[in-house]
Amino acid sequence: QVQLVESGGGLVQAGGSLRLSCAASGDTYAMGWFRQAPGKEREFVATISWRAATTYYANAVKGRFTIARDNAKNTVDLQMNSLKPEDTAVYYCAASTNKWATMTRDSYTYWGQGTQVTVSS
Known about the structure:
The protein has strands spanning 3-7, 10-13, 18-25, 31-36, 43-48, 55-57, 65-70, 75-80, 89-96, 108-111, 115-120. By secondary structure, the chain is mostly beta strands.
């Protein structure tokens, strides 16, 4: 069983930055970040493969967000720059039992409790 704990959410003005961190207990392979805004479905944000060789991003965040991992510390971070009000959502860390990066929500077995990110205009 893998437990994921996110941290780093908060309130920021448009154009600002936040760094989310996810600490995992247990072995993890591909990792991802998803987000869910009120009244919307949970959507893919970014993913990173087991050895960090591959990353994918949603078009909405490409060029602004960066996913990175430290396997020695069992953590995965999401650096979010140039934040926009439409980035406001609860952000979830997810872990897959597969090594390869994937954008598919159903490929992730373990989920964190989520952390709120609010971007004011």
